[in-house]
């Protein structure tokens, strides 16, 4: 589902970076910490940590070798290090980091409870864990909600593919329960909203042709006439500004807490 960095960046990476920047700002952690970026993908979160948190170092972990190669090519800061690994079995020592962040990952992990426990394990007592996931509610992740509204209007039997139904973890209550169950103390879940403004319809539509994630995967499964019908419906129903841009917003749920201990 996720595996090619060049396709991920225009589809989701550019928006994930906006959420990551706000999350790092809100955390307000002191400089000089060792950070972990679990499910680092193309390095979107790592870039924001390097830019805003003055870390001693950041280790990014992702199970996709292509993502790790992409991150190594594009994040050249010597404080950053990227390795392949599974979020449920992190190749990292206990209590080795001051902070661990995971962006847009846990809803795609087969065992999110185990991944949450791993995030707690790898930070030292008192260390911070932060996780964010898109809010797939009707007014949450606009670019995907609009997509699935058009897709299910053309094919009502396809509702099972809609991310709004597939990812119940992506809500305030479920995310808080997951992180608390993983061993975090003082868990808080707050919303982060960011603008997702597309230059024109091509800027919106073309990333869906990259095959990365549930929605682009669905597009790839369509026969050409059905794909064209979906494209045309979206072109007709998306909001437009006078300059032709498409103004949407995206909301993420961000959960933060700390590992108990002195």
Short description:
With 262 residues, this protein is α/β, with parallel strands linked by helices. It is built from ten helices and seven strands.
The domain tally reads 1
Tell me the fraction of residues in β-strands, as a range: 15-25%
Fold-level CATH name: Rossmann fold
State mean pLDDT (0 to 100 scale): 92
CATH architecture: 3-Layer(aba) Sandwich
Kindly name the structural category: alpha/beta
Written account of the structure:
The protein has 262 residues and is of the alpha/beta class. 40% of the residues lie in helices and 24% in strands. It contains 10 helices and 7 strands. Strands 3-2-1-4-5-7-6 form a 7-stranded mixed sheet. Strand 2 (57-62), helix 3 and strand 3 form a beta-alpha-beta unit. Helix 5 (142-154) packs across helix 10.
Helix-strand layout with pairing:
Layout: H1 5-27, E1 34-38, H2 44-52, E2 57-62, H3 65-74, E3 80-84, E4 97-103, H4 112-121, E5 123-134, H5 142-154, H6 163-166, H7 172-181, E6 185-198, H8 201-205, H9 214-221, H10 224-237, E7 246-258
Parallel strand pairs: 1-2, 1-4, 2-3, 4-5
Antiparallel strand pairs: 5-7, 6-7
């Amino acid at each position: 589902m996720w595996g090619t960095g060049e396709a991920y960046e225009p589809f989701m990476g550019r928006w994930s970076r906006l959420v990551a920047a706000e999350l790092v700002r809100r955390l307000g952690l002191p400089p000089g910490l060792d950070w972990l970026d679990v499910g680092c993908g193309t390095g979107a979160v790592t870039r924001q940590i390097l830019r805003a948190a003055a870390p001693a170092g950041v280790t990014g972990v992702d199970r996709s070798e292509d993502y790790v190669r992409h991150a190594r090519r594009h994040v050249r800061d010597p404080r950053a290090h990227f390795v392949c690994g599974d979020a449920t079995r992190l190749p990292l020592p206990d209590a080795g980091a001051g902070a661990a962040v995971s962006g847009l990952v846990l809803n795609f992990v087969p065992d999110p409870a185990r991944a949450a426990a791993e995030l707690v394990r790898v930070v030292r007592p008192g260390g911070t864990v932060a996780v964010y996931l898109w809010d797939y509610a009707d007014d949450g992740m606009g670019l995907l909600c609009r997509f699935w509204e058009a897709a299910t209007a053309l094919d009502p039997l396809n509702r099972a593919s809609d991310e709004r139904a597939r990812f119940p973890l992506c809500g305030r209550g479920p995310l808080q329960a997951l992180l608390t169950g993983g061993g975090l103390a003082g868990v808080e879940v707050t919303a982060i909203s960011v603008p997702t403004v597309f230059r024109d319809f091509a800027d919106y539509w073309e990333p869906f042709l990259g095959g990365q994630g549930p929605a682009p995967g669905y597009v790839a499964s369509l026969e050409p006439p059905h794909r064209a019908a979906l494209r045309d419906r979206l072109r007709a129903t998306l909001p437009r500004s006078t300059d032709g841009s498409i103004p949407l917003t995206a909301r993420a749920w961000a959960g933060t807490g700390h590992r108990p201990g002195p």
